Amino acid sequence: MPINHDDIEPQLSNAQEAFRLGGQTLEEGLDVSSAELVQLRKACRLLSGAERLLEDGYYTLTIEAAFTSIERTLLFWLITEGHHDPSQPPQSHTTAINRSAEVGFITDEVATKLEDLWNENRAYTYYQDGVATDDRGDAMVALADEIHLQIVNLVGQSHDCICE
């Protein structure tokens, strides 16, 4: 028997209302007006969250957050350098990787390896039957942390980073 509207009401309406209404308590650190800082700070939060999830043994979520942190960090750089219009959402999770290579920020080799890592491991772990492990989570957090650190320092905005 399928789930019908009555089965999940009022939670569905509450969720819709929560996204529709403003004036709620904002996540600390994300209350900035510039598009690039929003991406940077979301990357910081994702990275910090990934580290906590890794400590708590939630490896699938660790891997997901680490990949998304890399995506947000690259998007931060692309917006900062004028290579991405922040009003246009990325077309896919690998858009920031491919665009970063197109403009010469990362080499084609790095882009290919990051995209392969995404396609062969992130999707496999998240959607299929790939097993998330502590070693895989730890390696992804280390990679996301290194990319984040290098880009923040390169742009000279470490003072805007809110990583814990």
Overview of the structural elements:
The protein is mainly α. The chain has seven helices and no strands. The protein has helices spanning 5-8, 11-20, 35-55, 59-80, 95-102, 108-127, 134-155. The relative contact order is 0.15.
Percent of residues in helices comes to: 55-70%
Distance between the termini: 46 Å
Structural class: mainly alpha
Low-pLDDT windows of residues: none
List keywords for this structure.
164 residues; mainly alpha; 7 helices; globular
Short summary:
The chain is mostly helical and about 160 residues long. About 65% of the residues lie in helices and about 0% in strands.
List the helices and strands and how they pair.
Elements: H1 5-8, H2 11-20, H3 35-55, H4 59-80, H5 95-102, H6 108-127, H7 134-155
